[in-house]
Amino acid sequence: MKICVFCGSSAELDQRYYNSAAKIGTLIGKYGHSIIYGAGKIGIMGALADAARKENTFITGVIPEKLNIKTVVSEYDDKLIITKDMKSRKSLMRQKADAFLALPGGFGTLEELMEVITLKQLQYHTKAIVILNMFGYYDTLYSHFEHMYNNGFANENYRNLYSFQTNEEDAIKAMNTYKHKHVYDKYLKA
Description:
Blueprint: E1 2-6, H1 15-30, E2 34-37, H2 43-54, E3 59-64, E4 79-83, H3 86-96, E5 99-102, H4 107-121, E6 128-132, H5 139-150, E7 163-165, H6 168-176
Parallel strand pairs: 1-2, 1-5, 2-3, 3-4, 5-6, 6-7
């Protein structure tokens, strides 16, 4: 399985985030999966790739021209794809992936996650979307999703579009055992 991982590149985090990212990278490798990610060698992005690499995981890095900077981009990925911009980067990552995994990150991670959820809602894909809520990082996002359901801004069936998991093993298990469930949408009668 080719797992597209969305995650942060900050180098100023609590060490536990790097440790968790490394653990998920190791597990992805042990299960024989491959990684598609943002090609960064810094932050939890770098920790994920470094750990996966030790398991001989095939890693594809996808980076836009603007971020193709020596201090940012990994020179150790098995395949490096440089795109024109962020839009084409995300599109390519989505096309190549069999599943999506969101680790903690900033605005870019959140934007990538929201886009794949929305595209699944609109039936552009049927792939697993797993949100690894390590150390409660995504608790407020989970609460905000519930706030949208409770106020009628999102159909409660949309909970089936994604899965929140609290540890690395359960995140991998959720992707390994994923079976698509059609989610009703009032606009898309299919």
